[in-house]
Design brief:
The protein is α+β, with helices and mostly antiparallel strands. 50% of the residues lie in helices and 11% in strands. Strands 1-2-8-5-3 form a five-stranded mixed beta sheet, with helices on both faces. Helix 13 packs across helix 16 and helix 13 packs across helix 17. The longest helix has 26 residues. It binds protoporphyrin IX containing FE.
Length: 445
């Protein structure tokens, strides 16, 4: 019986590897040993091996060339393969759940909201305004930077999407959104008290709030310069149903939440530990401030001039590996790398290891933002920090703009010390289980 998985998935032509225990497969080993599980399996079976993790038969690909191929070839039947709980809670119109021409349309509609012109003219002023107030009053306090950056990512998006400021509605939204996030990473068991049930409830309540907002907007006929305003506008060439609009908004909130907040928190951590990098970064931001009056916002040209900041963001994403990889699934039996992969199997495009490749990144375990000043590194074929192919992150520049503005106000206003003793885990996600506490003071003191 214990060999059930091995027997069940015995088929000619499959890649090498082990399938683990019935039902659980190798999920426990994967979650407990994390990157070491992957490295051990690779040492035994090579860069393309089978396993059974998170409830599905899965092929793990750690080969950079093949990873790229998989991401570039969605049309051959390699579509997103995120867990059911995530699809249920993010909605059936969310971008990861749609393929082919529907995906193209939804993506086009999203890019129309967050392209560089929109960032320059509409979004950046909102981000600036938000960061100024979010980062005020932190001096002479102990703050939990993890909590602050999480709040920041959510509230900044809410402001961009619907002009929602910190208020009772954003508080109510926050509570429901946090439930939704937990639910997307749970086992899809719909019983009272489970994270899945709570996540679903969170989704329902968020839908109610968004429906109400849409109704109010339609009734008032006022023109709003925000993402919802664009989505509802008659002039928008991408016509979406209300259900699609709502799932779009949930997707934007969700995709930019953990990525932006964790990168911001880890940038603060690395800068704390590397005073030379902090000095260089602060120099860049103080030079921008010097040319402005205190009330002047960060504009597009300032953002473009933040070369070292961009390098810090890339180096943080690389070294902390905020995204370990992306998931695909096969829509038909197919041949890949000389093996036969059955229909419905997951493909885990595991991009973590390439972040520590000493050929691409000499001295890979050192935090060295300077390496990214060579711009060709960002566009290297194997650099998959923001994914690749038809699903490459459409929010890349928006995320960078948010983190850059956050860093701008943080390093020009404050200095900080870690209180110490906080734990950081790196896998399966980067987080500080009990928070990351900083003692903050005014920069001038
Ligand atoms: C530092 C910040 C960010 C990182 C590291 C990041 C990373 C990624 C990665 C690796 C993917 C590929 C997923 C896949 O192939 O399955 C992705 C996709 C995506 N990202 Fe981001 N992201 C960031 C910020 C954002 C922001 C701010 C948004 C807000 C709009 C966003 C929206 C999306 C969307 C909608 C997709 C799916 C695209 C599609 O399926 O066509 N991301 N992101």
């Amino acid at each position: 019986l214990l060999r059930w998985n091995e027997v069940r998935y015995r088929k000619k032509g499959l890649p090498p590897g082990t399938m683990g225990w019935p039902v659980f497969g190798e999920t426990t080993e994967f979650l407990k040993q994390g990157p070491n599980f992957m490295k051990n399996q690779r040492a035994r079976y090579g860069s393309f091996f089978k396993s059974h993790i998170l409830g599905c038969p899965t092929v793990v690909s750690m080969d950079p060339e093949l990873n790229r191929y998989i991401l570039m070839n969605e049309a051959k039947g390699l579509v997103p393969g995120y867990p059911q709980s995530m699809l249920d809670i993010l909605g059936k119109c969310n971008i990861a759940a749609v393929h082919g021409s529907t995906h193209k349309y939804m993506r086009g509609s999203l890019l129309a909201l967050i392209n560089p012109t929109m960032i320059r003219d509409q979004i950046l002023p909102k981000i600036d305004d938000f960061m100024r107030s979010h980062l005020s009053g932190w001096a002479n306090q102990v703050i939990n930077i993890q909590e602050k950056t999480k709040e920041m990512a959510l509230l900044s998006s809410l402001k961009q999407i619907a002009g929602i400021e910190s208020s009772s509605i954003s508080e109510a939204f926050k509570t429901e959104f946090f439930k939704l996030v937990l639910g997307t990473l749970s086992l899809p068991i719909d019983l009272p008290g489970t994270n899945y049930r709570r996540g679903f409830q969170g989704r329902k309540n968020i839908i109610c709030m968004l429906e109400q907002l849409i109704e109010e907007r339609r009734a008032s006929q006022e023109v709003h310069q925000d993402m919802l305003g664009c989505l509802l506008s008659d002039e928008n060439r991408y016509k979406l149903s209300d259900e699609e609009i709502i799932d779009h908004i949930i997707t934007i909130l969700y995709s930019g939440y953990e990525t932006v907040s964790t990168t911001s928190m880890m940038a603060v951590k690395y800068l704390h530990d590397h005073p030379k990098a902090l000095e260089e970064l602060r120099k860049e931001h103080l030079a921008i401030r010097e040319k402005k009056r205190p009330e002047d916002p960060i504009d597009w040209n300032d953002l473009k001039s933040m070369r070292f900041t961009r390098a810090v963001i890339f180096e943080t994403s690389r070294l902390a590996t905020i995204v370990n990889g992306v998931l695909r699934k096969t829509t038909q039996d197919m041949e890949l790398n000389g093996y036969l992969i059955p229909k419905g199997w997951r493909i885990y495009v595991y991009t973590r290891e390439i972040n520590y490749d000493s050929f691409l990144y000499p001295d890979p375990l050192t935090f060295n933002p300077w390496r990214w000043l060579d711009k060709s590194l960002e566009s290297h074929n194997y650099c998959l920090i923001f994914g690749g192919g038809t699903r490459q992150c459409p929010g890349k520049e928006l995320g960078i703009a948010e983190i850059s503005t956050f860093l701008h106000y943080f390093v020009t206003r404050y200095r900080w010390e870690e209180v110490g003793g906080d734990k950081l885990t790196k896998f399966p996600r980067v987080e500080a289980p009990n928070g990351l506490h900083l003692r903050v003071s005014h920069l001038a003191n």
